[in-house]
Please model this.
Amino acid sequence: MAIGVQTDMATPRMANHGSKELREEFLAPAIAGIKVACIGVSEPQAGSDVSAIKTWAREDGDDYIINGQKMWITNAIQADFMTVLVNTGDGDAHRNKSLIVIPVDTPGVVRAAKLDNQVVHFRLAEMKTEIELFRALLAQTVTRYCRGVDVVAQVSMLKLKTGRLYRQIVDGCLQYYGGMGFMSDTLISRRYRDSRLASIGGGADEVMLSIIAKSMGIASRRDKQGRERL
Model:
């Protein structure tokens, strides 16, 4: 991603439309690997909807006065310059924009703390969501059981999901340990091995699926003569 931002996002427009001076000062060293580039598009209130950006650049003699905030900027901490998308006119929101190159050491440019555990955090959030959904079915099933309702199908669903969710969560966590996660002296490695049994012991997944399918009325059954019937 970091390399792609430099080669495919922050510099191509400069190569196609930048002045000779601009290409010499920024593009040439970026291609040579001497300078790191980043691109500033996303804002707190505008991500995928680029037309909604609020950052403005207004001419002030030979300069531009730029006011705004950008975020989710790959390479921002390492970058020497940023190619920034700004509003430069009051016309149509899809046509009033320009790209301006800003050296990050320009007075007034403030770089906030690096955010990069975002991918890990989002994955953990997904796992948490899956677990909470599982707990919701578990609570519903217990309530139905206490009321004397037949919960064979729900229990089978829980057993099926237990093994699969266990493996999914542990496998996802192990990934963040890298090679160390596969060493036998780490707890996550043991959890990874143990998780496989949950889909076999106490009734294999296939047995649970059969029970669930029967409760739905979509599995074949055998009559007293051994003939299959729906």
